[in-house]
Design brief:
This protein is an alpha/beta fold. It is built from eleven helices and 13 strands. It has two domains: 172 residues, Thiolase/Chalcone synthase (Peroxisomal Thiolase, Chain A, domain 1, 3-Layer(aba) Sandwich); 147 residues, 3-Layer(aba) Sandwich (Peroxisomal Thiolase, Chain A, domain 1), CATH 3.40.47. Helix 3 crosses helix 4 and helix 8 runs parallel beside helix 9. It binds oxa(dethia)-CoA. Oxa(dethia)-CoA binds next to helix 2, helix 6, helix 8 and strand 12.
Amino acid sequence: MKAAITAVAGYVPEDLLTNADLEKMVDTNDEWIRTRTGINQRHILKDPTKATSDMGAEAVKELCKKRGMDPTEIDLLICATVTADMPFPATANLITDKVGATNAWGWDLNAACSGFLYALQTGAQFIESGKHKKVVIVGADKMSSIVDYTDRTTCVLFGDGAAAVLLEPHETYGVQDALLKSDGGGVQYLRQKAGGSLHPPTHETVDAREHFVFQDGQPVFKAAVKGMADVSYEIMERNGLEADDVAWLVPHQANLRIIDATQRRMGLPHEKVMINIQDYGNTTAATIPLCLRDWESQLKAGDNLVLAAFGGGFTWGAIYLKWAYDSEA
Ligand code: UT7
């Protein structure tokens, strides 16, 4: 039995942070941001009473509505995030409570920008083993809660959002193969320096602005270009897929230039690549399911999709799946 995606839904907050807004906040300009990253705007969750679980809950409620399913039918909910509402309990628990998924268990999974792929492969195991019938994978991040809006090298990159997919058993469609990697040596280039057990919060860590995303962009860029392209190519090769066989590349949206490099390595035309970075920026765990949400109406049963990501850890990987339904059917 395979684990097929049978529904997808997403949520982005209404408020926008445009490149023009950022020009007024830090020493940057629209041209630099667009040419170096491909981003025009991001959605930001401004309501201080709302957090990652609220966006995740909106996505899951919509998911249930679209599938005509009561939340009590959900067996398991995994939430990929680096911006949990609080260190504990898990955001997955908060989401299940908010949507009324009273029969679900679940947990958070932290693999930064590869979180959705890691969670998808984890959730798929419970379907493939026959243990569960309905598994929800959420990718959700309120990146604005850990972005330093005085640091021009990172604040232009990130946005807030959430999206979710439902996994159900299917005889042929669904996850076909996964190639997931990690290298903890990447911690030196991309991390949140304080707030964990190594450097618990103190006045000093707050004063030193160590609770925000720290990124040394260039080494991450170089590793991402190679890592994402390598795994995407390798998963095609080991499944005997030619460029013509791939209907869509669904890439993590961190930088348009990283996406372009992956597309070239796979030999795909531009029209087969899902790109919405211009509208949302990098929403970390939410980028890939938000793409699936935005392109759902164009997907057909049996389409071969390659999902690919690279992010903090380092973590990276690719998943090859066969789409399971015609959305207009
Ligand atoms: O999703 C998680 C994984 N993360 C990624 O995949 C991100 C990977 N990294 C990147 O996407 C790119 O490295 C960035 C978009 C972060 C930066 O682009 P870059 O082409 O690597 O630029 P750079 O860091 O080499 O900086 C070039 C110049 C520097 O000025 P000098 O030293 O040449 O005078 C920066 O200070 O651009 C400057 N700069 C900016 N200028 C205007 C850096 N940020 C900005 C900015 N506006 N926002």
